[in-house]
Amino acid sequence: MTIEFAILGFLSYEPLTGYDLKKRFAGSDLLHWSGNSNQSYPALVALRQAGQVAQTVEQPPRGPARKVYALTEAGRAALREWLLATPDPPTLRHPLLVHLLWADQLTPPEQADLLARYEEELNIRLLMLREQARRQPAEQAVRPLREAAQRRWLAVFEEELAWIRELRAELAAAEGG
Amino acid sequence: MTIEFAILGFLSYEPLTGYDLKKRFAGSDLLHWSGNSNQSYPALVALRQAGQVAQTVEQPPRGPARKVYALTEAGRAALREWLLATPDPPTLRHPLLVHLLWADQLTPPEQADLLARYEEELNIRLLMLREQARRQPAEQAVRPLREAAQRRWLAVFEEELAWIRELRAELAAAEGG
DNA sequence: CAAATCATGTAATGTGTTACATGATTCG
DNA sequence: CGAATCATGTAACACATTACATGATTTG
Fold first, then answer.
1. pTM
2. Which residue of B has its CA nearest to A9?
């Protein structure tokens, strides 16, 4: 999956500049492209070459020129084709689980400490995600699937938190009992 | 997280060749480095330069030379240091959720079909994961955390399957009702 | 007046995948 | 005898991140 399709998705709502897109990517964890200018700007150039977006240069009375991009018919068709394609299963990178493959070599207190620190990190992450969700303006249009996607993203991290708490409890019980 | 630490982890059990490591990575989804010679061989060279592994060249009566790598004391210390460090939260790439952000543009039958195809893909993935888990030989030593990690990896995909089934049911109910 | 935001990009680096290249041995 | 496995690597490419570079405008 390349960033191009997500850009087409955003442009299907409204015309935007590269900078606008950059902010949208930076403000969303689900859209993992982390809002670096290095990706949105070249991607727009490529989409334009493919005829999927049209560029309008706005020269405001003062300040730098703004390049506003809008979806073309070809762009809308490409977006639709992509939406219909079967998505790959999720890809997960889970550093803690990799640690745990060899963490039996640590002493019980070291293990407990490791898991406690991880839970803290996870909590911080969840706080950020909830704040991110809160900041998102309520949309005028009802989009059930979009909302389901956003809820699911949060749920994955909440399930992770529940799991780590359970594991810590089990470990404490095994040690203390 | 680089592949080096996982290599140190494997070598903490027994000396291995680059080829052995390659197979171990290829056979594990949790260890996301997908068993390409491009990573294990250069990583071993780097680890050796860092003094964390020692190389022994075995020249069998017939056939190519085997380079067997064993953990050094410095390697064991590096592994321990890494194990004690706080792991980053998981990184998730979820193409379906990205689709869903814009899938409200599709017709209900198209949406239903997309989710059905995704569930099929997920099922295949789960079958492979279970098969992978089954193939793993029972270890002599009891390693509770290692087992917890492997169970958790499977559980994440099982939770995903449960979620997609629920979402499909909701969608069908909304349409049918 | 300093910092943040708007707005456009490029360069260097890291990380990971697929494919290429070579050659012996073993299994069906 | 052809395919898979053992065994070691290299090359090309794709994808992502951090940092660099520039300069105007707006906000505190």
1. 0.95
2. B102
